């Protein structure tokens, strides 16, 4: 494969081929960072410049006011996950990173769905909501808004179900996760 | 105490004796503090010059280099040196002024978001928000810059905060919960590495700039000579192993020796120390060292298995790891004769493919000869800086560096214009050493204003311009890979370097005759003050040998 200095014309397949170790699955990284300005920009910037795609991202406080937690998901099929974590570790404000093992992790996401609902579809939507253990949190003449909590699979399944009714809007938080059992994440 | 006076106290506590920079509105308070402060300030003529000077200072001395710029354009002019210091792991601290806090984010006069701009190219940066944190931040900046894998740290201080009256107490510890470089090296891994070395029949030690940064050159020699391990260094590592040594293979990589590259190609074990398998080293990655297993010793865990998967990774400081590895290796009492066949093979390459060029039969100065002449005139132990291009590669090839911190160049970023300002910084760091800059006529035009700095601050560097009237390295690529279409590489014969030097108050000389070169260089070295020697060399000479881009080491040409 060529590089900028050579005149060889590059084909797209060659350009796409890249090395590295790929695990082929989604990884949830739980990252403890110092609660300082610009930290999120550093993390996001690192992903952008190293060409890592962020699947979802959630940021929030922890029980310690000086520390925030970033939970993000990366596709291990696309990116060498150990490069991702090693590069993250190089950020001075990153205190701890845990690549959560799927079997040892409970992950949840919250999503809000605003769906068109007229007379007949309304009942059906409410039924689906119940099956998914969701909650209706707002109702208007021509719409309902439903809150669903669960794994991203569950949220995607719900989306599939209600899309035919006319999905006006979907808002998702991105997954957050903790390790199972007694020990801290 | 004013926050800026506290900054000066902190700099002194960090052992800073000199800073390089240019004042402006946003860092006026700092300059006021410097006025009384007892730290030498060198007024450069461009912030890029100040930044490279800080790098040259750091590379020559191993201490942290410091550069100052004002907000906006002052800070953006520092961007190239910051990126350069990141790529070559140079311990540096950049102090930038910022607009007053009330103007932040309003596109105030001379506002530029320098921490945002530099985020991808710093080891770390601080945007000060409370003047009381300034002393701690300065110390943390130095700590981060110099420890672990060294690098640039930017400290951006809004003008109003720098004028604040703060309680100052010396800071004696840093608080960086997320920063904890590993230094010792895992004992088990070191034992494994020793075993691998003892079992290897075709080993090569491949050392990079990390060995220089770790001040581990002596430890490298000890390891290499604990048996007869062949050693090659990267462009950044030159001097980490003494060039005139029977185990020395020469530099490796794109313009390295055939011996070094062939040895990598046929090795069964490569012990990488403070080197990062850059594309200029590996050539075509899939065909790089196909028979080798890799020991990779590096202070930065992210370098390990980044480009080439390591079989035995060891994270830590080379200075601590190498002696342990040597001890473990010695204890194994490996049979030295197992390397006989390997050395025979290597000697064969060395005989067949020495570095060579066709010298002129008349008065023409071949560029390679120019470097040999410089070696002769300086006795081979000057501190040599360079710009970027053919002259840089020829200097790396023909100035056989015997010791670390003598070869100062821009390897990772390849920054034209690095040579003169870094020479200035090196000379300030090592006033008793001879400091020469091998400049390209193209590169030097990017920072030649620093001649004024050299003259007014009495920094007697000697600049030798390898003047081929071309952007030579680009011309070479156009000749070899773009069917000789010389697009935008002819630099002509201007400026008149002798007159330019004289205009700045330096001494200017010109040499175009081979027979006069060594003598002229000696004269230049003995002349007081800064000297610029315009050496007219062959216009179209190519730098060989060469691994063409994207090809494997064994396909070297020239
Ligand atoms: C700032 C910058 N711009 C452009 C380049 C691309 N470049 C690499 S080598 C080179 C030519 C350098 O010419 P010169 O300084 O005369 O050295 P020579 O190769 O002739 O020895 C150029 C333009 C670069 N490395 N740095």
Protein architecture, described:
Chain A is of the alpha+beta class. Chain A folds into 2 domains: 12-100, ACT domain (Alpha-Beta Plaits, 2-Layer Sandwich); 106-177, ACT-like. Chain A, domain 2 (Alpha-Beta Plaits). In chain A, 29% of the residues lie in helices and 37% in strands. Chain A has helices spanning 12-16, 39-50, 81-89, 119-131, 152-166; strands spanning 26-34, 54-61, 67-75, 94-100, 105-116, 135-139, 143-150, 167-172, 176-179. In chain A, the strands form 2 sheets. In chain A, strands 5, 6, 7, 8 and 9 form a 5-stranded antiparallel sheet that branches. A 4-stranded antiparallel sheet of chain A has the order 2-3-1-4, covered by helices on one side. The longest helix of chain A is centred in the C-terminal third of the chain and has 15 residues, at 152-166. Chain A is globular, with a radius of gyration of 21 Å. With 558 residues, chain B is an alpha/beta fold. Chain B folds into 3 domains: 3-162, Thiamin diphosphate (ThDP)-binding fold, Pyr/PP domains (Rossmann fold, 3-Layer(aba) Sandwich), CATH 3.40.50; 187-352, TPP-binding domain (Rossmann fold, 3-Layer(aba) Sandwich); 367-536, Rossmann fold, CATH 3.40.50.970. Helices cover 39% and strands 16% of the residues of chain B. In chain B, the strands form 3 sheets. A 6-stranded parallel sheet of chain B has the order 2-1-3-4-6-5, sandwiched between helices. A 6-stranded parallel sheet of chain B has the order 9-8-7-10-11-12, sandwiched between helices. In chain B, strands 14-13-15-16-18-17 form a 6-stranded parallel sheet, with helices on both faces. In chain B, α1 (3-13) runs parallel beside α7 (134-146) and α16 crosses α17 (390-398). Chain B is globular and about 70 Å long. The termini of chain B are far apart. The model of chain B has no long low-confidence stretch (mean pLDDT 96). The complex binds thiamine diphosphate (TPP). Residues 387-391, 414-416, 440-443, 466, 468, 470-474 of chain B line the site of thiamine diphosphate.
């Amino acid at each position: 494969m060529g590089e900028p200095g050579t005149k060889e014309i590059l084909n797209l397949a060659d350009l796409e081929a890249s090395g590295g170790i790929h695990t082929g699955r989604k990884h949830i990284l739980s990252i403890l960072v110092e609660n300082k300005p610009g930290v999120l920009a550093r993390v996001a910037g690192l992903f952008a410049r190293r060409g890592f795609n962020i699947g979802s991202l959630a940021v929030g406080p922890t029980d310690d006011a000086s520390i925030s937690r970033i939970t993000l998901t990366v596709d291990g099929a696309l990116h060498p996950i150990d490069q991702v974590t090693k590069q993250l570790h190089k950020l001075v404000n990153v205190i701890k990173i845990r690549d959560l093992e799927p079997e040892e992790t409970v992950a949840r996401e919250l999503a809000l769905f605003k769906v068109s609902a007229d007379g007949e579809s309304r009942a059906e939507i409410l039924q689906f909501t119940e099956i998914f253990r969701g909650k209706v949190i707002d109702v208007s003449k021509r719409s309902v808004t439903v809150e669903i909590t669960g794994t991203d699979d569950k949220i995607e399944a719900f989306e599939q179900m209600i899309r035919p009714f006319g999905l006006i809007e979907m808002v998702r938080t991105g997954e957050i996760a903790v390790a199972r059992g007694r020990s801290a994440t | 105490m004013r926050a800026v006076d506290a900054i000066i106290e902190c700099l002194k506590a960090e052992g800073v004796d000199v800073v390089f920079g240019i004042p402006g509105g946003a860092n006026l308070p700092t300059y006021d503090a410097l006025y009384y402060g007892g730290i030498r300030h060198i007024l450069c003529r461009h912030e890029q010059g100040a930044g490279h000077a800080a790098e040259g200072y750091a590379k020559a001395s191993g201490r942290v280099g410091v550069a100052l710029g004002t907000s906006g354009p002052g800070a953006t002019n520092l961007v190239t040196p910051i990126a350069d210091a990141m790529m070559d792991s140079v311990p540096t601290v950049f102090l930038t002024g910022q607009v007053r806090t009330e103007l932040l984010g309003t596109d105030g006069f001379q506002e530029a978001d320098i921490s945002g701009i530099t985020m991808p190219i710093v080891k770390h940066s601080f945007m000060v928000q409370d003047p009381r944190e300034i002393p701690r931040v300065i110390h943390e900046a130095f700590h981060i810059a110099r420890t672990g894998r060294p690098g640039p740290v930017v400290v951006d201080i809004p003008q109003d905060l720098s004028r604040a009256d703060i309680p100052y107490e010396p800071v004696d510890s840093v608080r960086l919960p997320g920063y904890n470089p590993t230094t010792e090296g895992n004992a088990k891994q070191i034992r494994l590495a020793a075993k691998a070395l003892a079992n290897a029949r075709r080993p090569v030690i491949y050392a990079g700039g990390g060995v220089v940064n770790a001040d581990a050159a002596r430890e490298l020699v000890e390891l290499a000579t604990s048996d007869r391990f062949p050693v090659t260094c990267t462009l950044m590592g030159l001097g980490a192993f003494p060039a005139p040594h029977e185990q020395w293979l020469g530099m490796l990589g794109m313009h390295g020796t055939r011996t070094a590259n062939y040895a990598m190609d046929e090795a069964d074990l490569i012990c990488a120390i403070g080197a990062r398998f850059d594309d200029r080293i590996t050539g075509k990655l899939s065909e790089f060292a196909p028979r080798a297993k890799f020991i990779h010793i590096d202070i930065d865990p992210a370098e390990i298995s980044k480009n080439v998967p390591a079989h035995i990774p060891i994270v830590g400081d080379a200075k601590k790891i190498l002696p342990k590895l040597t001890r473990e290796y010695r204890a194994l009492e490996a049979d030295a004769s197992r390397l006989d066949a390997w050395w025979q093979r290597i000697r064969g390459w060395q005989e067949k493919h020495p570095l060579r060029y066709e010298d002129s039969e008349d008065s023409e100065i071949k560029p390679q000869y120019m470097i040999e002449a410089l070696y002769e005139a300086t006795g081979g132990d000057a501190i040599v800086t360079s710009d970027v291009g053919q002259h840089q590669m020829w200097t790396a090839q023909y100035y056989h560096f015997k010791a670390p911190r003598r070869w100062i160049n821009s390897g990772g970023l390849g920054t034209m214009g690095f040579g003169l300002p870094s020479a200035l910084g090196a000379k300030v760091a090592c006033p008793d050493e001879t400091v020469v800059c091998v400049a390209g006529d193209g590169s030097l035009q990017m920072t030649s204003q620093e001649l004024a700095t050299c003259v007014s601050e009495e920094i007697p560097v000697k600049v030798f311009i390898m003047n081929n009237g071309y952007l030579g390295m680009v011309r070479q690529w156009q000749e070899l890979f773009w069917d000789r279409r010389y697009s935008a590489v002819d630099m002509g014969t201007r400026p008149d370097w002798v007159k330019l030097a004289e205009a700045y108050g330096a001494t200017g000389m010109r040499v175009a005759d081979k027979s006069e070169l060594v003598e002229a260089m000696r004269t230049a070295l003995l002349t007081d003050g800064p000297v610029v020697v315009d050496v007219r060399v062959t216009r179209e000479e190519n730098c060989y040998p060469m691994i063409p881009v994207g090809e494997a080491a064994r396909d070297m040409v020239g």
